[in-house]
Design goal:
The structure is a single chain. The chain contains four helices and no strands. It is globular. The chain is an all-alpha fold and 97 residues long.
Length: 97
């Protein structure tokens, strides 16, 4: 299984079974971080922060787990970007209605 197939399996099967929809989970994380930090943090920023954590760990002690998690975070971030783009495009398409 290649890196992105493994990331898809982890995000779409294992983690989704354990924690539910990734979009909702990252919303929960962002709300918690907002309380902790005292300022707003959106779910994409949370994912990028976790990606940096995995990159820092990889710099200190390279492990396959770090790379797998990075691929999964990247995949979820890409899906959020695509969903946002569709939402923006849909609102532009319906403005003239």
């Amino acid at each position: 299984m290649d890196l992105f197939e493994e990331a898809r399996k982890l995000a779409d099967e294992d983690r989704q079974r354990d924690y539910g929809d990734p979009g909702h989970m990252w919303l929960v994380v962002s709300e918690g971080w907002k309380l902790i930090f005292g300022f707003g943090v959106n779910r994409k920023t949370c994912i990028m922060a976790m990606m940096w954590l995995k990159m820092a760990r990889q710099l200190v002690k390279p492990k396959k787990d770090n790379i797998d998690d990075l691929a999964g975070y990247l995949m979820i971030l890409q899906r959020m970007e695509e969903t946002d783009e569709q939402t923006i495009q849909g609102s532009v398409d319906t403005e003239g209605d």
